UniProtKB/TrEMBL annotation:
GO terms for biological process: base-excision repair. Residues 249-288 form the FPG-type domain. It comes from Luteimicrobium subarcticum. Residues 2-98 form the Formamidopyrimidine-DNA glycosylase catalytic domain. Keywords: DNA damage, DNA repair, DNA-binding, Glycosidase, Hydrolase, Lyase, Metal-binding, Multifunctional enzyme, Zinc, Zinc-finger. One of its GO terms (molecular function) is 8-oxo-7,8-dihydroguanine DNA N-glycosylase activity. PANTHER family: FORMAMIDOPYRIMIDINE-DNA GLYCOSYLASE (PTHR22993). It comes from the Bacteria. InterPro entries: FPG_cat, FPG_N, H2TH_FPG, Ribosomal_uS13-like_H2TH, Znf_DNA_glyclase/AP_lyase. SUPFAM superfamilies: Glucocorticoid receptor-like (DNA-binding domain) (SSF57716), N-terminal domain of MutM-like DNA repair proteins (SSF81624), S13-like H2TH domain (SSF46946). This is Formamidopyrimidine-DNA glycosylase. It catalyses: Hydrolysis of DNA containing ring-opened 7-methylguanine residues, releasing 2,6-diamino-4-hydroxy-5-(N-methyl)formamidopyrimidine. SMART domains: Fapy_DNA_glyco, H2TH.
Length: 303
């Protein structure tokens, strides 16, 4: 799933290529992807792209015509943006979704007045990609309820401490909660927790009297995301997925040697905990005092 760094890079990529251009076509390929009906998708045609912004993991393309509209996209797990210097002329035929075989399903195509454009596609059988056409991005409930942006000035150590103290849950779950902190998902929460040298199962209540630990986790969050944003910036959309994989220290690297939280190999290997439809990766030596986590429901590790 694209997370804050990749979505930010996609936003910058699209902004450079679409700003100031007129939308000449907006064609729906996957009926289930469109979550709104008024204004219609066709209302974007004839409008000029005023800019592209990011809200958490959401892409917000503003189109100004007779009225200001926003094409707001969430790529979910299997979605992606594919740029065309020359947009295909093959008619887009709406379909209800479904398995899609081994190829990504075309969900949306946007064409511009210089002949370029982009496709929004979705791979996999579970169709969760979301397309909204609204007058204001805040009309999308999931955007309106987003938490603090972790790379914004509002994300202070004090604010983070208050978020940790507000409830008692596993810290990995809090990092991934979009209503608490916007933009972090499964991959970067693994990376942040590894950098902070803490267990993904540590309970947030244990941070209430551990201000040094709060500061360390805050620092890891900002540093990991800042580094990832810098690494993704300027890359074309087609290269972002591979760049993300290469930048991971523990996520997706089960069984590989742990590079160490400070860049010095610790001598252990990356372990995994599997769930129904996802998994997390961590290093026992760096994060859990050398003890492997057997299962999230059985583990009582808080360090």
């Amino acid at each position: 799933m694209p997370e804050l760094p990749e979505v930010q890079a996609l936003v910058e990529f699209l902004d450079r290529r679409t700003r100031g251009h007129v939308v000449t076509a907006a064609s729906l390929g996957q009926i289930s992807a469109l979550k709104t009906y008024a204004p219609p998708l066709s209302a974007l045609v004839g409008g000029t792209v005023a800019g592209v912004a990011r809200h958490g993991k959401w892409i917000d393309l503003e189109v100004v015509g007779p009225e200001s509209l926003h094409l707001v996209l969430h790529l979910s797990r299997g979605g992606w943006v594919r740029w065309h210097d020359t947009v295909p002329t093959t008619p887009v035929r709406p379909r209800a979704g479904g398995a899609g075989g081994g190829r990504p399903t075309l969900a949306l195509r946007v064409a511009l007045d210089d002949g370029s454009g982009f496709d929004v596609t979705e791979a996999g059988t579970r169709k969760r990609l979301a397309v909204h056409v609204v007058h204001d991005a805040a009309e999308v409930p999931q955007v309106a309820t987003l938490g603090v942006e972790p790379l914004s000035p509002a994300f202070t150590v004090e604010r983070f401490a208050a978020l940790l103290a507000a409830r008692n849950q596993q810290v990995k779950g809090l990092l991934r909660d979009q209503g608490t902190i916007a933009g972090i998902g499964n991959a970067y929460s693994d990376e942040i927790l590894h950098a902070a040298r803490t267990s993904p199962f540590r309970l947030t209540k244990t941070y209430r009297d551990a201000l040094d630990d709060v500061a360390a986790l805050h620092r890891a969050t900002v540093e990991v995301l800042t580094e990832a944003v810098a690494a993704a910036s300027g890359k074309p959309a087609a290269e972002l997925k591979d760049a993300k994989r290469r930048g991971m220290r523990v996520h997706g690297r089960t069984g590989e040697p742990c590079p160490g939280w400070d860049g010095t190999p610790c001598g252990d290997v990356v372990h995994e905990v599997s769930f129904a439809d996802s998994s997390l990766q961590y290093c026992p030596t760096c994060q859990t005092g050398g003890t492997p986590l057997a299962d999230r429901r059985m583990s009582r590790l808080l360090r």
